[in-house]
Each structure stands twice: as structure tokens, then as C-alpha cells.
Amino acid sequence: MKRRTFIRNSATAAAGVSLLNTGFISPRTAISRDIGIQLYTLAKPLSDDFTGTIQKLAGFGYKNLEFAGPYYFSPEEEIKNNPLVAIMGLKGYGYHKHTPQDIRMILDDLGLVSTSAHISDSSLKHNIDEAINAANIIGQKYILSPAFMGQTPDEFKAAAELYNSFGEKCKAGGIQYGYHTHNGEFAVHEGVTPFDILVKETDPELVCFELDLFWAAVAGVDVVKLVKQYPGRVKLLHIKDMTQLLDEPYTTFDPAKGMDMLMKLMGNQCIIGKGVIDFKSIISNVDDAGINQLFIESDFPPEPMKYAEQSALNLKKILSEI
């Protein structure tokens, strides 16, 4: 298919779906945002047909794509040992064999943006300059560390120092650095959580946070209280639903010791709006907190494209009621 024909067809497909890009944080804010999706959700479809999958996402009404690595600038051992590549048999990763310039062209042609990317700590240590360069070419505003496997307060204090250094480099390159949470950041150590440590030990000008609502629910976190406790620090939300609440909070995030439990938890994820997380209440109560992006996400959904399509429609309905 010729590129311009592809663009026309994409626009036609998108016209049949109500776009999800106006006023979804709160009617009171008069701020227009673009609902996005974390591409980790669609690792296999993207690996099989990158451009075709992006076209379908545009047709579903998504306007913002959050990328996940590894990337061409990641260390070789990370690329070779990436579990998605090994377990799911992916043909590509990161930009799926495209250059940042290619990615920008595809996004521009479809009227999409990418405001953020998950880039591992090891990739940032290896070549943060190229990570920043790629982000600027694509038009991204945020580089986010996707996870930290530390278990102790001292390990998180050391991580905070590292994240300040990442933040300094990113700020110099015109990018905001941030950290994506799971459940382990909310384990309590003598009255203090690793999240408390990360917030207090990092410079608010250099480090922000992306709060994953599913993992927050796993940890038993009162999200509204948390966001209001640290105003301005949480800039992005991952919208991820769960079929049922746990009987008690679970704050272990250590694949080496609890992989079976982590996989069980991932199996508790479901299409947005089909589960128990009250997104409407959360979003309506933190609309003045500085959050400026929402990304739908799921870990290994059994039917990724169905998940993406239905979740977009359901979240649009939820947000229209705020």
C-alpha cells in the first residue's frame, strides 16, 4: 500500500471512532489531553506488524503512544536477555527495527504523538545521550525508568541518587525524567515506604513519577491520598484494571523470589471498566494535581487488540461521566 493511501485509509478508520482527546481529566480543568497506550501491552502484534498495529490503534481512537524497550542504544546483554524476546518470540523490540526518524514520520502521518518512553536504568547508564536524542527526534517529553528491583531502603536511596543524575542529564536535553511504580515501592520499612524515599530523596525539578493504578491497588494504596500528599510529583497514570481486589496488600516485587505470584497477579488484570478499580473516583479527585497523561496498559493480555479496542471505548465512557 502506498504511504498516502495508507494515511487516507487510516483517517477514514479513525473517523468512525470518537476521538479520546478532549477534556478527559476533568470538566473543571478545561485542559485537553490525549489518551494513550503503553506499547508493552501489544508487544506481539507490534513485532508481527508494527505499522499495521499502529494504524489500528489510531482507528481505535488512541492519540498517544508510550514506547517500551529495549532499544538500539540498549546494552547488548539487555537485548539478548530480554524476557519478551525470549518468551514471546518477538521479531523486534523498542522501535521494532525502525529509526527514531521513521517513528516520527509514522506518528506524524497518522496524527499521533508519543510523549513518553520507558527506558531501563541499564540502557540509560549505557547511553543516555542517545536515549535523549531519540526522544527529541520522536517528540517525547518524558523518559521513564520502568522498574527498580531494590528491596531495602538503602537500595532505594542509592537509586534516588542515580535518578537525580538521570534527571540532570534529561533536563539538559530538554526532557523530563521520571520513574514508573509497581507495588514494591509501597512496602513499609519502619513507617517509611520506598516511594516516600524516592520522593524525598529526588529533586522535584529533575524527577517525576508515573503511578500504575493496578500495582497501587495490589499494594493497598489510597491513590487519592498519595497524590495529594505529594502534590505535583505524579505526572502520569497507568490505567490498568483488575478483576478482584486482594484479601490483603501484597508489596513484594522481586521476580527472583516471587515470580509465580507476580504471574498470578498479572492474570488478575482485565479490560478497563470490567474490573473493580474506580478510575472515575480517582481521576476526578486528583484533577488539580498536575497529572497530564493517561496510558492504558496491561501485562500480556490474551487478546491484545481486543483489549486495546474495548479498553479505549470503556475508558472514554468512564471519563465522560466525570
Fold and architecture overview:
- The chain is of the alpha/beta class and 322 residues long.
- It has one domain (3-16, 26-320): Divalent-metal-dependent TIM barrel enzymes (TIM Barrel, Alpha-Beta Barrel), CATH 3.20.20.
- It contains 14 helices and ten strands.
- The strands form two sheets. It has an eight-stranded parallel β-barrel with strand order 1-2-3-4-5-6-7-10, surrounded by four helices. A two-stranded antiparallel ribbon has the order 8-9.
- Helix 3 runs parallel beside helix 14 (304-320) and helix 6 packs across helix 7 (121-138).
Descriptive tags:
322 residues; eight-stranded parallel β-barrel; two-stranded antiparallel sheet; globular; alpha/beta; 14 helices; 46% helix; 10 strands; TIM Barrel
Topology (elements, then pairings):
Blueprint: H1 3-15, E1 36-38, H2 43-48, H3 50-60, E2 64-68, H4 76-81, H5 83-88, H6 100-110, E3 113-118, H7 121-138, E4 142-145, H8 153-172, E5 176-180, H9 194-201, E6 207-212, H10 213-218, H11 223-229, E7 234-239, E8 241-242, H12 255-266, E9 269-270, H13 279-285, E10 293-296, H14 304-320
Parallel strand pairs: 1-2, 1-10, 2-3, 3-4, 4-5, 5-6, 6-7, 7-10
Antiparallel strand pairs: 8-9
Helix pairs in contact: 1-3, 3-14, 6-7, 8-9
Q: What percent of residues adopt helix (DSSP H or I)?
A: 40-55%
CATH superfamily: Divalent-metal-dependent TIM barrel enzymes
The average pLDDT score comes to 89
Q: How many strands, which pairing sense, and closed or not: the largest β-sheet?
A: 8 strands, parallel, barrel
- What is the correct CATH architecture? Alpha-Beta Barrel
Tell the overall outline: globular
Under CATH, the topology can be stated as TIM Barrel
Number of domains: 1
Topology, number of strands? 10
